[in-house]
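Field reference: "sequence" (input) and "structure" (output). Example, RecA family profile 1 domain-containing protein:
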Amino acid sequence: MQVPNMQALRALRFQKHLLNLPPTNPLSSLRFTVICSSRQFHFTRRKHFPEESTALTEYAVQGWAAPSAARENPSGENVPQRESKSSANYSNVLGSKGRVYEVTGNGNKKKGKGKSKTVWVCSDCGYDDGQWWGICKQCNGVNTMKRFSEGVEHLTSGFEVLENVTRSWLPHQSVRAMPTKLTDVNKGINQSNWRIPLSGLFGAEVGRVLGGGLVPGCLVLIGGDPGVGKSTLLLQIAAIVAEGCDMGGPAPVLYVSGEESIEQIGNRADRMRIGTDELFLYASTDVEDILEKTQTLSLRALVIDSIQTVYLRGVTGSAGGLSQVKECTEVLLRFAKKTNIPVFLIGHVTKSGEIAGPRVLEHIVDVVLYMEGEKCSSHRLLRSVKNRFGSTDELGVFEMSQSGLQAVSNPSEMFLSEQQSDSEFLAGLAVTVIMDGSRAFLIEIQALCVAGSSVSRQVNGVQAGRAEMIISVLIKQAGLKLQENGVFLNVVSGVSLSETAGDLAVAAAICSSFLEFPLPVGIAFIGEIGLGGEIRTVPRMDKRINTVVKLGYKKCIIPKSAETSLSALDLGDTEIVACRNLKEMINIVFRKR
């Protein structure tokens, strides 16, 4: 308890010393009001300045203003105030990076001063805490916690200045908003024409993922690995929206890049053969500057590439920091809702594949899309993770070409090898149907049984536990002598089989390789295998069967329990074969022709 008492004693003696300063000192007290990261902090420092000095030492800032009124000394003489380099208006007190400085020349203690408490604020991310820590708990920055005193005096005026500065570029409503009845919200709105349509095969594929088109005033966040094609995707979307083939004519769309110059973007657009007159390019990282430029254009959409490169003046931290990313996204969200202009954001991803920045970023936006793709493959998948205006089960399939992304009309061709005629090379191959969201894909499963192999099991693309169970059921229930055989399983194109609908195809592929009996071309297997050897139904059986029929398959093996639910489907020339268990399936498929 001695250390705090000594500190208080030193502070009291220092304060008495400052109160005895010469009356001719014009700046015996400096009070700074710092608005940083949506908070207002005060800290006071009294320092004697010689008359011949005009600097503010370590507290010197550009644009500080001294009070215009002269201070009277105890003798009654008016002492002129030292003039600063700028005017004495409070509006000019705003310094760089959104900090507001208030400089007063009154050395006397003000009456009625509000209480203050000490707050430690991280200079990188804006995180605040009641006590000092060597490492910031939010961004793990070392020695970044700075001390401030959070006061209540002039709190309203400080926020008014910040409000006027940071929101001057947002549109202001002349009429104050009032609560509206739910029945009155949709009056006069044609739901069929409410969304902005995207024309062409590419636009239809993107529109499917968005839920049927682009919603006015929505905020869309697109993430993905570096080089997967995020900028290419948004440049093509911007060109389609700007052309407005199904929207009554062209309209301006602004593409803003914080990573590339407009010449680089123009070069990519020329390679992709995009020549839309209403597509505007702009290179900037200042959010206020970007939104000021939008006021000169009657925009139909806005694209920001990327959210980690832009910053907002008045927010602590550098571009890409937690506070900057969150505040910039909230500003763009308010802009989108007030102007009814759709805004697209590109987001960087971390090593784990998640969008970089605070997790709240995905809660702020309306739609979150992830673009996926393998380095060795030219195909790209656009997956919906969050969608306030549609389903998250939709999936878009594209192929990267020299002229940009092209929509894939038949996604199953990605996972199927070239089918040959019935021959020995087709032994051990079976086709099944999997669901990814609302899209059905046909994938190929390969199996290889080797007698006397030193490796008992090798699985790629199939869950190891699931594969062991299927092999054990074939041994026990179907009577296959697989104990002395090494079994190798593989899913073509590196797909991971995570659902149980492929169990029957895995078992058929193993039987085909073990019996050395090639499966006929044009046969598919759908079903789950139980421990008793029974074949169970799986969800969305009608969607899977429709995909098989559409691709022209001649025969499809399904569970017996799902046969009645498919009676209303138009099967065309496809034969549906229902089986109760594995033995029945083997007797039907592997009998001599």
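The longest strand covers residues 439-451.
DSSP finds 13 helices and 25 strands in the chain.
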